[in-house]
Amino acid sequence: MTHDTAAPHGSPSTGAHPREMHPQRWGDPAAATALPEAARGLVELAFGLHETPAAAEVELPPVGLGDDVLAALADVVGPDHVHVDDASRRLRTRGKSTPDLLRARAGDLADAPDAVVRPGSHDEVAGVLALAVEHHLAVVPFGGGTCVTGGLAARRDGFAGLVSLDLVRLDALLEVDEVSMTATLEPGLRGPEAEALLAEHGLCLGHYPQSFEHASIGGFAATRSSGQSSAGYGRFDQMVVGLRVATPRGEWRLGSSPANAAGPDLRQLVLGSEGAFGVITAVTVRVRRLPEVKVYEGWRWGSFVEGAAAMRTLAQSGTLPTVLRLSDEAETGLNLARPDAIGEESTGCLMIVGHEGTPAQVESRRAAVTEVLTGLGGTPLGEEPGASWAHGRFHAPYLRDSMLDVGVLVETLETATFWSKVDALYADVRGALERELGVEGGSAIVLCHISHVYETGCSLYFTVATSAGEAPIERWGRAKAAANDAIVADGATISHHHAVGTDHRPWLGAEIGDLGASVLRAVKADLDPTGVLNPGVLVP
Amino acid sequence: MTHDTAAPHGSPSTGAHPREMHPQRWGDPAAATALPEAARGLVELAFGLHETPAAAEVELPPVGLGDDVLAALADVVGPDHVHVDDASRRLRTRGKSTPDLLRARAGDLADAPDAVVRPGSHDEVAGVLALAVEHHLAVVPFGGGTCVTGGLAARRDGFAGLVSLDLVRLDALLEVDEVSMTATLEPGLRGPEAEALLAEHGLCLGHYPQSFEHASIGGFAATRSSGQSSAGYGRFDQMVVGLRVATPRGEWRLGSSPANAAGPDLRQLVLGSEGAFGVITAVTVRVRRLPEVKVYEGWRWGSFVEGAAAMRTLAQSGTLPTVLRLSDEAETGLNLARPDAIGEESTGCLMIVGHEGTPAQVESRRAAVTEVLTGLGGTPLGEEPGASWAHGRFHAPYLRDSMLDVGVLVETLETATFWSKVDALYADVRGALERELGVEGGSAIVLCHISHVYETGCSLYFTVATSAGEAPIERWGRAKAAANDAIVADGATISHHHAVGTDHRPWLGAEIGDLGASVLRAVKADLDPTGVLNPGVLVP
């Protein structure tokens, strides 16, 4: 095994993946940019600037596993794939929520795993789980590490140790079926590599969440991810037709057919199970032909309500583009959807409408969507805002790091509801955040957009910026709790696409009921009788 | 309670629903027609005619419940809603598979419930379940009684009695949300009544399985039904956004949002649960505007393979009509999809293509579909075959009764798979049926159609006609087992839309694995600890 504590971040000696992230920041620091000058001015005006660089990387707690257990793990995955060096352990300490970053910046590494284990096959995953049961080790499946809901911060009390099960070596495209238009992918594939492998066959998945560049196929499945092109390509859970899962009780394969009546759809029990029921070792997904044309354009609406009504009309008339998102007045004013334009004046509400497909498909769908939007009073803004959005579509988390650097706390949260409840939910969540963060004093900005639509409803995605203050984690914790309370009081979902993790777990019971919580516990007890898989995550 | 054993079938004194079926036949005998002369000739040629009228209705086994239990049930639902008369019990003895009908015709009423109980509210359902737990009564939820997989033939061994929980009185449209385009329906509503109530609001569900005229909303949900317009309106499980369920452990409500990442989608665990986990007491569904135009047309293909390839092209290019079905050469030759034309000569393979919507939607979709089908070599046949199909779309089960009357066993079975496996599955299931029924001797006809398509695959629906012979139930049992063995050997699903019931239960484990079966048992044990709900159904 690798004990090289002097290894730099991303060095080959830790087996680091090229898309491995910085332990205290989002993504690849080389890809990050400084806070744009225009934004810096805005921030200074709103909150003042308090340069707060992260603490130097601190040493980790000692590895809590004995050499016998480490040797047994090495027997399963090979000695090169058990890592106890600081760099490997540091990156797998929690995920990338703002509280996670604040803790990492403060040098709090209390949740660090004892070891990072990288299996190279389904059987090696099964072998690690068997050892975990034997030695009562908590196991945290790890994909891209992009989780923002505490899903990588498993409980370790009562366990002999905590192992981060890094699936990075499971990175193959196992099978392509161009007749059925399906592909079987291993869970460690990151978004770009999955798309690149499919592109060799002229195919694509079309799944582009904001975490796309770093998140993994297994993570998309385990958390019911939804991407920016969900209007055209669907949610990830709608793409999945088959699953292979390693559980402490053995292998589980699902996926006899696109859809069926052979009892409950158990695939939908694995999707969203967040590593608590088993480790997904292969995912069979529906794929599409690579689009020949991609065009993104902007539309302006007089208000969020008008723009949302237009989205509803598109969804309910079956006239959906590939990408459809709408910023509220506040988000539009700050140009958050157009990072190139931050600092410029923008009024009304910006909608981004994207079309992908063959030239004929794009032409006919674009014409149909344009007719609806024009008829409803939208103002076309041409392709410039669309191009600006597309250029910055994965960049917001870098901006968050830049804001944290100057003492501004930026975080997001999201929910979904039915169309008739959108206005109330928007007002209630926004009101809860503003009240808790004391917007009266000018110390918080709350922005919102709709980025996923259905015939019956849509998501709401809030971005909050506030002065970090003396105790930013606690400050945000109170605001987030107030928002969650408002969400469940309105009967909406605690998460549209970020998942439950540990952060949302206290509110899950209010959404799925005592019996829903009981059923999750029963399934967990059945598949993972000793509870070694992601303890404390998801299951109430 | 009502003991009036002399009450005729359907009389008000048994509280019979107008859509209640004949205990030995499909549907309403008044709506049935005699075997068409042309068909009669074909049948005689193939199998000979052996007029075999059903046995006179026989007496039932005595009611096995004591007066104390009956009185307790009457306390919950009211004395008018506990029925122990023969007519009520007879109709709730099993469902409408051909073996069910053969047993009913032979006077075998061994599976008759002891009592039929008709709750009028969710709370009364909960009250009946509480009594069932207290007295250890098996409870069989009953909607329209159209089940064809033995889902109404629960095990009664070890129980103090068996109660048919008839949901007919739960027949309200509870709520319409025209902004979200959702409606909340009670489970006892039959298809036509549900559509009629929605039509008062200009809305529709668009769910038209062959059982439409008699089946219930609760049954559609509990069995993951799929209708003839699934290409346009989706499967029933895709329509459901919310559920209210009565379980022995209390009430369970699900449905915070159209879709979410709040853990596994537990709605998909209730959908397809076939009354074994709880009793669905309300279903919130996505609805659509009533179509202004409906047009159905015929297309002819040179072969089943060519027609199936055309369906695949439509599904994978996102160019789906509302109705899309394709008969194989044998089914086309017998004009099974065009009951008006039985006896006429038909060659090749008939495809029915239907479009519903606004005039503009129908025009544009019809043009797009026509372009694809023409480009692939299909021959348009105009609207006559479409009208003939639409006229007879719910009539096939009546034809089955007419065939049974003359000694011909007719039964159907269905499955689904991915497109690349369709040819093999078709050949294997057909081969298994022909081998087992001895087609070499000319004693069986096997027909097939595709009636549900997805981007990644489709359903296969087989219709078999064979001479009933001396022991028709055993004869069909062997053929069905051979077909099921072929289905699971090919990795396909044991049912695309008929559900598991008792008939498919022995094959379910092969499809969902030992762990899938274990999970179903765990959920069952959690929600129904004493196992009173539909014992022996679904759960392996």
Brief characterization of the structure:
In chain A, 35% of the residues lie in helices and 20% in strands. The first copy, chain A, is of the alpha+beta class and 540 residues long. In chain A, helix 4 packs antiparallel against helix 17 and helix 16 runs antiparallel to helix 17.
Biggest sheet of chain A, strands in spatial order?
15-12-14-13-17-18-16
Unreliable spans of chain A are: 4-13
Please give the most extensive interface between any two protein chains, plus how many residues each contributes: A-B, 85 and 84 residues
Number of domains of chain A: 4
Question: What overall form of chain A do the CA principal axes indicate?
Answer: globular
Would you give the CATH topology of the largest domain in chain A? GMP Synthetase, Chain A, domain 3
What is the mean pLDDT of chain A? 93
Largest sheet of chain A: 7 strands, antiparallel
Quaternary status: homodimer
Percent of residues of chain A in helical segments? 25-40%
CATH class division of the largest domain in chain A: Alpha Beta
Q: In the CATH classification, which architecture of the largest domain in chain A applies?
A: 2-Layer Sandwich
Q: Quick one: how many beta strands of chain A?
A: 18
Q: In angstroms, what separates the terminal alpha carbons of chain A?
A: 36 Å
Number of helices of chain A: 18
Derived structural class of chain A: alpha+beta
Strand proportion of chain A: 15-25%
- Cα gyration radius of chain A (Å): 23 Å
InterPro entries (chains A, B): Alkyl-DHAP_Synthase, FAD-bd_oxidored_4_C, FAD-bd_PCMH, FAD-bd_PCMH-like_sf, FAD-bd_PCMH_sub2, FAD-linked_Oxase-like_C, Oxid_FAD_bind_N
EC number (chains A, B): 2.5.1.26
Protein name (chains A, B): Alkyldihydroxyacetonephosphate synthase
Family (chains A, B): Belongs to the FAD-binding oxidoreductase/transferase type 4 family.
